[in-house]
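Final report, results section. Input specification for complex C-07:
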Amino acid sequence: MLQSVLLLVAQTTILLAVSPLLVGLIRKVKARLQLRRGAPVLQPYADLVKLFRKQPVISTATSWIFTATPYVVFASTLSAGLLVPTFTSQTPMNFAGNIIAIVYLFALGTFFLILAGLDAGSAFGGMGSSREAIVASLTEPAMMLSIFAIALTAGSTNLSTVVHKTALMEGIVTDPSPHLMALAALFIVALAETGRMPVDNPATHLELTMIHEGMVLEYSGRYLALIEWAAGLKLAVFLSLIANVFAPWGIATTVAPAAMGIGLLVYVVKIAVLAVSIGVIECMFAKLRLFRVTDLLGVAFILALLGLLFFYILRS
Amino acid sequence: MPILSQIGSQLIDLCSALLLLTCFAIVAQRRLSACVDLFALQSVFLVVTAALVAYLTGNHHIYIAAALTGVIKVVIIPRVLKKVIERLNVKRELVMNVNVPAGLLICGGLVMLAFFIAQPIIPLGNILTRDSLAIALAIVLIGLFTMIARQKAVTQLVGFLVMENGLFLGATAATHGMPLIVELGVFFDVLIAALIAGIYTNRLQDAFDSVDTSHLTVLKE
Amino acid sequence: MNLFLLLFACYLVGILLPLCFPANPRIQNLLAHGFAGLASGAGIVLGITGLLLPEAWTVSAQSTVPFLSFAIRLDSLASFFVLTISLAGLATSVFAMGYVTEFCGRVSMGTLGSLFNGFLLSMTLVVLADNGFFFLIVWELMSLLSYFLVVTEHEKADVRYAGLFYFIMTHVGTAFILMTFLVFFQGGGSFSFEAFRHPEHPLPEGMRTLAFLMALIGFGTKAGIVPLHVWLPYAHPAAPSHISALMSGVMIKTAIYALMRIYFDFLGGQFPWWWGFVVLVIGAASALLGVMYALMEHDLKSLLAYHSVENIGIILLGIGAGMIFQSYGLKELAALGLLAGLYHTINHAMFKALLFLGAGSLLYATHTRNMEEYGGLLRRMPWTGFFFLIGAVSISALPPTNGFVSEWLVFQSLFLSFHISDIFLKLMLPLAAAILALTGALALVCFAKAFGISFLALPRSTQARHAEEVPVPMRMGMTILAVACVALGLGPMVVVPLLDRVVSPFAGVSIGGTMVAMDGWALAPMNVEFSSLSTPALALLLVVLSILGVGFAVAAGGRVNIRRYKTWGCGINLTPRMGYTATGFVQPIKRVFSAVYQPTVKLETEFLNESRYFAKRRHFEFHIEPLFQKYLYDPLIAFFTTMADRLRIIQAGSLHLYLTYIFVTLIALLLLAV
Amino acid sequence: MIAVMVMLIAPTLAGGLSLVVHRSSLLHAINLASMGALVASEIMITRTVLSEGPVTALGQFVYLDALSAFILVIIGAVGLACSFYMRSYMDEQVARGVIAPTRLNLFFFLFHMFVLAMVIATVANSVGVQWVAIEATTLATTFLIAFWRRRESLEAGWKYLILCSVGISLALFGVVLTYYSSLHVLGDVSQALNLTQLLPVADRLNPHVLKLAFIFILVGYGTKVGLVPMHSWLPDAYTEAPAPVVAMLAGVLEVVAVYAVLRMRMIVDHAVPSTFTGGLLALLGFASFVTAAFFILIQHNYKRLFAYSSIEHMGIAMIGFGVGGTLGTFGGLFHLLNHAFAKSLAFFAAGNIHRRFHTVEIGHVQGLVIAQPWTAMALMISGLALSALPPFASFASEMQVITALAAQGVPGMWLSSTGGMMTVTLSDQFSRVGLAAVFLLSAVLAFGGLIYRMTGMVWGTPPEGVARGEIWTLGHLPIILLAVALVGFGFFLPPPIRQLLEQATSILLLD
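Structure output:
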């Protein structure tokens, strides 16, 4: 009992700590690739602290939904994070929900964000919400199928179980092709869900292009801080999901301190690498038009489906 | 008395044949009053037939039937119809749904049909009246056909009465007369029907100023 | 027994008594809905006891009319549905006490009240009936009474149209149901369900298939499966809102009950795999198309009605999966699928009723159903808003509410398809899962729209500006359902064993024990290995972590008080016209799925005389093509009417023609006979 | 047998009186009295028949069994309802000057003659007398149909007279043939048309003749019943006649004609396998049902609508008799009863509507529920009952018919031709279900048409210049009673009626 509580606390802290770092890292990479010096990697932490201290300004048009949303988003994203194994496969909250639960926890956050975007009654918020709506709804099928492809290989939909088994090389098919396709699909989904290029540009406030930023345009102070942090968390969760599901090597499969240490180290490295790759991608691609995003997500869906097909064909 | 019955059946067949012939005549006839006359003539033949049957079989109540026929169909109804015709001053029927030659052909066909239909049951009849059932059927069919072929109310009425004659022929000749009460009822009904129809034709004349029943097409889908 | 009598008596009194006080609407209102409340209370108890009974409780009385016997059978399936009906019934009757006052003067309270009671009673009897003849009677009574309730406001032409459309469609459905029963009659020569269950001489395969299809069409019409759903979005909104709640929440479920009864009880769960597949496909189609059409609706109640189509689809996904597993002899999985379907059945009954009551409250407060005329209502009607939000969260299947649990279970049963040997189905079921995912996401969007546009931002009309919170009874009614939603969401470990009692007789295996894992904390469909879910834990997590968020805010020690200022509108003062409308909100979706909608947009611009570059006014309208009406129903109707028109010539009015008919008939028959 | 005497004398007496009396209230009183006497005597007869079985009276002239008793019950019930309804109806017509007060005498005289003829047709022992009586009904009603003396009513009356007379005379030929066949078997010629004489020896009669006889009878009386394709007079007549008369025509006269056909069938079935008659009945039944369903779909005149629905329901009943068996026959008889009630209800409602709206166009009638609540209820109930919806009794009877159809199919009818025997079997499992499907399709079509028009009339707001609200008259009493009966019989058949139906069924099944 105590052990799982400790693990829980540990995981929470790690996620909270790591997420701003990832954001900073990506920004740095992009700056470098664009031959700028860019802000220091730790800048996001500073931003958060600052935002927390600032006095929030709330629109007179809004209702309690607007002020409640940041907490809901923060909580839902973080609890999604607690269902994903990070540095150990012994995730204490494993029983609380499988990967479908994670998807729907994210959906909970999205739902309230959309409401908040509408609440202020400005055109920007509405625009952001409506765009977020279409993107979110189109990512889900691809997400489900890719997840299912993974679940099949490990015979489970509980992430920790999947990761654990994969790490111990239990019941894994030898051929990687289904895995790879699912990985590709899930990666695209991750980009879309976390509002990254080529789906959304987190760095812009140009009303024609912004999606996520549009929704949260009216936020300030601690509310904005929470939302920013939640965004970071979401990124972290997705990265850890990808990292641990497809490359679970080195993750701590026991609760031995040593294993833990190694697991932590490996974990940080893994997600850092992924973050860098995202940074690179963001520089390589231009943002797609909203109605081109559907094509991208369609590709993701087809990839996942192919993964499934391959799995069965190779099995039988 | 074989010879007698021989002659009797011959006579009855003859009368029946004459009845049939008058039918053809009615179909061929365009003048209304002539149609009525022909009908009266037919009724006369009918009376003779009935009387013959009554005499030969000795069912005396057929005499009554014959007498009634004489009174009603030879005297009363033709009078009524004549009156109607005079009042309506329509002399002859110009347009027919089926022209005369075709009509005659069809009637011929109907007679054959009647014989064909009645043929399996004729043997049941007694020697006296072999074919009269078939003839009766033929007359009924021809009467119905007349009603279809003609347009004037009066001629339709005549057609109807011809049907009745056919029925009566069947009833008397083939079955030696129905129970008396039935006979009486039938006569009563025929009389009433004819009278009512007469009244109707007058009303139609008033309402539509014509007795051409092909004008009665207000009520339809 | 006594419970049933009590229920029956209460409803009966509720039907008759209000008619005795024609003068006094208030008394009528109280009597009718009071007794309805009592009766449904009894119904709840009856349902629960029925679920716990070891075996079915039956009672029957023979009528002097041949075939007809008033046979009642309370087995676990029936009790489950009685429970569902009565729960919704209780809430709606409480709600109605306040709501019907809106109709005071326009409609006779007595009639409305007794029809309401009769409707509830007939629904209860439908699930209890144990004789085909009796079933048909109460089934048609249900349709008839609901029809009369739909046309309550018959002065409006569209209401009349909706009612007529509904009535005819449901009667067509009944015809198919009758066919089904006639097929079963072949087996036993009797209409008693017992004879249907154990026919003297079993039906041949062809007959069984016929029964399957007929039942699917017949009950599908009532359930509103695609493409038989067309009446539903007309009829449900047209009725008074508490009736819509019952129709959408409960009445369409009686069809689900009947399907379960026929496929698993009468046909003994013995069928080829393609039956289940057909059900699955229909379910998927209904779910997706239902939500898609819902997205384009801006009439709140029609939107909800379309969502009923969607949710019926989800239920059928569960049941269809169950049927497929059944035909492959995978008992546990079959049980899981059915269980998921049933769980979603009661959940949908709860949140859909809640949402309709919410819509009713909005109607009550603003006298309009058009979402574009709402806005900013959350601050004027906080309670209604809160309840509606709960309903919206539940129907969008967001954790930790009840909608999430049942949809999660459906997902599980679809994902477990890899146990099936046939590769085609191995692929099809996950595809269905993907469609379900898309459906869920779109439903989320739709309710984000429904809630956001109606309750948030600025009021877009004077009615919305002056709306007021609804009276207490209405709020109480919604409270009941809201509580039910949350409870069903947090307590699946209690609900699942009860549902297991319903499905185990059909699936032939009990999975209630294995499904509750982690000593009652978590739900584990097959084994904890494969998947597990614990909504209480998730709820706890959410609460704790949001407190954590607050903690951070406090710990950072910024200034606590908030500065209120108007929204940034690029320097112009914010007006309602700047906010997003429902139409605008779904525009991207409309464009992405234009293949389905085939939208036609009309934009007229009236320019200023001075310059061609400034518009004086713009008129924008768009509507989407109702595919099924256009390509399925209209041709059918046209066919029959033209045929009828052709037949007119028979009755041309000519006496000679008529005589010819007789003549020809006579001769034809004579020739036949000789 | 006093009751029989009463039954025959009451209408005669009333008819005679109504020619001499001149106060309308007195006329109505006589009418009610005679109808009351009729009903009372019928109840007595029913009881004796139920207890003692078939009885003959007045020296072989009257023959009463459960079947005829059942028909009498229908005549009595509908007749009584009509005479209640007439009170307000006819008086209003007189008050509005549609008809001269003096013509009331004629009206009532004809009405009583009509009733008398139907009673005789029902109780007559001799097939011949029955024929005479049925012809008499035609003669009595033809003026009632043309009573308003408009052009249309004249046309309708003429068509009715001609078509029915032709049909009837064909029936007479059938009777003649029967007699012809019986001659050789029966000695006593004067009794040779009596059922009491024919039935015992019927199995020795010549089948050929009987077949021909039955066809003539079917076509003949079928015209009276209004079976397609001999139905053509029916819509016109029903549209033009006064409401109470139509109620009688639709409710009772059709039933009596059906009864005549059934009587004949009983004789024929002894000699010929019942599949022959059954096949013919089912054939005409289906023809009527389907055709009527389509015509109902396109009606815009509510009286014609009901007329076609009459054809439809006679078709259903015929299918029931044609399919035969306990189930089908019982259902058919029961359906006759329900239809009589529902249809008279419908025409009462139609009469009220016409008095208020002065139009038969469905399109011009709206908001009935506001203008005439009671009539609206009557219309709705009759409409629902006519489309055989639960909880109305017609649902039960139609269920029995269709169940019989699905369970037995139409027994393979022998189509004997000179080319030898050829059979069409419509009794294997799938074609049975197929037939049931056809049945249901037509039923749904009819329902659609009926309900579409009904609801169009009942709901909405009445047009300008139409008075709102309805005052209670004596005419509402039968409406209520019939409605109650329709609903009640759907759940619970009073034991006497059930026994009557069962015995009648067994009589028709010749066991």
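Chain B has one domain: 2-209. The first helix of chain B runs from residue 2 to 28. This concludes the modelling results for the funded period.
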